[in-house]
Amino acid sequence: MAVSGLIMLGYLVAHVAGNLKVFFGPEEFNAYGHWLRVMGAPVLHHHWALWIVRIVLLAVVVAHAVSAYQLSRRDLKARPTAYVHRRKRASYATRTMRWGGIILGLFIVWHLLDLTTGTLHPGGFEEGKPYQNVVDTFSTWYGNVVYIVAMLALGLHVRHGFWSAAQTLGVGNARRERLLKLLANTLALVLTAGFVSVPVAVMTGVVS
Amino acid sequence: MRLNLRVWRQKNGGSEGAMATYAVDGISPDMSFLEMLDTLNEDLILRGEDPVAFDHDCREGICGACSLVINGDAHGPERTTTCQLHMRSFRDGDTIDVEPWRASAFPVVKDLVVDRSAFDRVIQAGGYITATTGSAPEAHATPVPKADADSAFEHAECIGCGACVAACPNGSAMLFTSAKINHLNVLPQGSPERETRVLDMVAQMDAEGFGGCTLTGECATACPKGIPLPSIAAMNREWLRARRKVKG
């Protein structure tokens, strides 16, 4: 869980940085989209680097989901009888890890069908014109709702996930506790704010 | 004080249990929670009913025998053991829910008594040192750095009551096991078995059917001895180190 989660987190940091290029206009954003396809050239053939990233991400997402399933099954088996007197346990981010993860998994499927393959894209999806595609998606109410809800779930997931990964890998100790929590919160906030800024910019007309 | 108790009653491990309601009267705020249950049991015996079975021993908060999940909290609302919890923490007329530790590794024996021998087997897997025994050695014969001595003592405070497992939404025993491992692994006396200890105890913990850790922190909040949450990260560190050493 920890290793696969951290690899995805690394990818997300690169992803949010790339997304923010949308604020520099269609030329620069589309050129960035093109660069992703020729990344590593001339050593690598066109699209190769992109496909390597995609394959690694797919493997990591599957590993993360499988270990989450195994861990959850084990955890539910270890507490077969629930307490009669129930009270709220742990923080919101901690309690929503399982459902939040499922929401994020479904979101990734929609997100790929929307902006990678264009299958579910509203309006004419055009390969090589990511700027216009992004504007199209966030011009629909459901595109905004799905995206923003998923990004809030992402923030919560990262907030508990990053700190937990540090504990699993044995990096945490009493002195680093505050630093790790601060880092987890900062990452969660930067990722959520960065991703959400794009639909908000389209809605307010900053990006059109 | 007059209280309304809802207590888990279960004849034995094989039978179905249920919450039963009892009213107890004449409770002094200075009584401990267990003395309040003693009062209830005296009433039950006089009425010819089966008294409520619960674990207890020293009643000084140092043995780890008492348990009970009180209103959803392991050892009740105060950060102490149930025997050191006093009725002044409740108000007259309160309804109090009393349940046993819930975990598949801690099967209910009767009423509020659970079988915690899974913990004993985790200890047997490596929670000891193989130094020669005999009379106590001279205290300064083996120098121990102050920070290590403090850490060992902090973890040695674990009384093995099982509140961490009871409080954990996953029924995980990571805090208990980490306390036992960190206690011995930081000391020179424990270092000959440093790697096998962590590998064997964690393997035994998993074999007992305790859940996995999702770092909710409920264990450290419930622990009457204040074993801190970072102890789990320290155990993970020891485990990863041992895996590298044993394999390499």
From TrEMBL, chain B:
Q: Does the keyword Iron apply?
A: yes
Provide the cofactor list for this protein: [2Fe-2S] cluster; [3Fe-4S] cluster
Q: Does the keyword Iron-sulfur apply?
A: yes
4Fe-4S ferredoxin-type domain sequence ranges = 149-179
Q: Which InterPro entries match?
A: 2Fe-2S_ferredoxin-like_sf, 2Fe2S_fd_BS, 4Fe4S_Fe-S-bd, 4Fe4S_Fe_S_CS, Beta-grasp_dom_sf, Helical_ferredxn, SDH/FRD_Iron-Sulfur, Succ_DH/fum_Rdtase_N
EC class: oxidoreductase
**Which SUPFAM superfamilies does this UniProt record tie to the protein?**
2Fe-2S ferredoxin-like, alpha-helical ferredoxin
GO biological process per UniProt: aerobic respiration; respiratory electron transport chain
GO MF annotation list: 2 iron, 2 sulfur cluster binding; electron transfer activity; metal ion binding; succinate dehydrogenase (quinone) activity
Q: Which UniProt keywords apply?
A: Iron, Iron-sulfur, Metal-binding, Oxidoreductase
Q: What is its EC number?
A: 1.3.5.1, 1.3.5.4
Q: Which family does it belong to?
A: Belongs to the succinate dehydrogenase/fumarate reductase iron-sulfur protein family.
Q: What is this protein called?
A: Succinate dehydrogenase / fumarate reductase iron-sulfur subunit
User: What organism is this sequence from?
Assistant: Streptomyces nymphaeiformis
